[in-house]
């Protein structure tokens, strides 16, 4: 059986490792190509978009794909919506493999917001030093609140360059340690963190560091799901594929 993994996450890579050399499942991975130097999974991999729903549906049909696992980032809502539509059109079963969202614990000071524009507005009454841990694609939303000092961490530089009068860019890729995150917050005298509720362990240390220092976290909640069945680990996704 031929399967397609929509990847770009640690969960997708874990599933790819399980599928390497599988006797009954011939799997390939697709990456969006938004990261300049992606970590390539151990399976045949294509990089680049499909051209919307029509392009993805054509790819499924032309390549004889019989199952799709959407293991993209929890905030990659466009490709996830395209996968739902394309799989419905072609009759291909679809499963979502995603990490569980983070939940606040005792001592957390989270401010939940629905999107990045709301996150920027939430900063106005908060401290002057802001740590943006949102990736590189939505930094421009914070140009609406220019009177802050921004520390921006991303794998690749933001494009376009943010029009912010006071910012510093750190290029780095997780996983991050608690010791390192605490030192970073101390060094830059961070007053508030902005994060997407991505879940997972690779970047979770920043939340514990914020808890220990009493720093508020403006947390952008995930977009609503598409009603597709979800699993939260690669083994469960493999089991689903094997039942097909």
UniProtKB/TrEMBL annotation:
The keyword Oxidoreductase appears for this protein: yes
Pathway per the UniProt entry: Cofactor biosynthesis; adenosylcobalamin biosynthesis
Segment forming the signal sequence: none
Keywords: Cobalamin biosynthesis, Oxidoreductase
Source organism (scientific name): Azospirillum isscasi
Enzyme class label: oxidoreductase
Name under which the protein is recorded: Cobalt-precorrin-6A reductase
NCBIfam families, per database record: precor6x_red (TIGR00715), PRK08057.1-2 (NF005968)
An annotated Gene Ontology molecular function: oxidoreductase activity
Domain of life: Bacteria
UniProt key word Oxidoreductase: yes
PANTHER family reported in the protein's UniProt record: COBALT-PRECORRIN-6A REDUCTASE (PTHR36925)
Enzyme Commission code: 1.3.1.106
UniProt xrefs under Pfam families: CbiJ
